[in-house]
Amino acid sequence: MEQMAEKIRGCTQSFPGYSPQVLKKNLINEFFISADDAEKLTVMVDRELNLGELGLAALELNLTFNCNLTCSYCFVHQKSPQDRMTIGTAQKAIDLLMERAAYPNVNITLFGGEPLLEFNLIKKIVPYALEAAKKHNLAVTWAVTTNGTLINEEILKFFSQYNINMLLSIDGGPETHDRYRRTRCGEGTWHKIADLLSLIKAYQPWLGARMTVSTEAIEKMREDFNQLVELGINQFIIAPAQGASCWSKEEIEQYGLNLIDILRDYLKLKQKGYPIFIEEFEKGEDEYTGWGCRAGRTSLAVAPNGDVSPCSKLLGLTEEGGKAIIGNVNSDLNMQLLEPFQNPISRQQPYCRSCFRQCTGGCYAVNYEQTGDHFTPSEENCLFWVVCQETKRISRMFRSGCRQYGYR
How many whole angstroms from its chain centre is CA 380? Predict the structure, then answer.
């Protein structure tokens, strides 16, 4: 296996003279593997290399780094009311997406900070993007991640008109949510969001939430999940609050055990016909997508001032080196600076290559904060990956058992 890995590395390092067909032929002839297996390996290598080209599928527009809340775990470390995107910068960012689009459908995420602080800008961005997409024969899907506190009926009508789906940041019940998600005056925001939910769901019946779990909230994870279900949340992203401060092994273990409890409740809700979906509970643990994520490969993030980076979380870091900025949409971009993100497997650590658990390498931003390198996974990221994979494995076992009794 190591000889095969060395052969693949040797072929790909001849880049740009690398040929997928030559690699496939060499694998078959030298290692006597089937044509199908050689094809699968070649496709995976191609995906990792991306052949140095930037073919976009998504863009994250950080409309502002300002926010009306003061969540201490936020990945944007330095917020300022002056960090606001202009329509000119937004248009240039959208033009970049359309010109570099490699797929018939592209996605634009309106992000921040709190993006709804810039609703007047959103009303200009959406028509421009749709017109630009039409010229390039593309379709656009939209997403907004919001803390929910600024939502009103005007915003909901606009989002409904243009099929813009919101993802609410809400961490559970009032005790957990209000621990961090407070206004600048120190007031909690849970009740305000809860009071808005019936109006929100009148315009967006299927509603998703990002439930961020802090170390202080581990013990109440299951309770917090069920409180959000009672509020009418349909789709969940449940994730730990990660950053420069690390979780202990004991905390990660408890997080995993509580995630299994949530999985049990989730499957019971599904059996009862409740409309709910958690992608991580529906995936198989063997669904390997390769080393690295889409950041810098098929997706870019643009800061309010026009700076371009592979990812919004990187833009939120304090150190300039961590932000991985490749230029500015208002001037020039150096696409060569994306090469590490387009070919992340070339930065894979030796101990990762020999690890029996195939992971995706962890979050680039968390890696940088905890190890000083985007491509060196922290121990914390590794442990959370194990938790994720074990949860998927247990979910598959539970679901296989449930199907015998009518669950689909």
Answer: 18
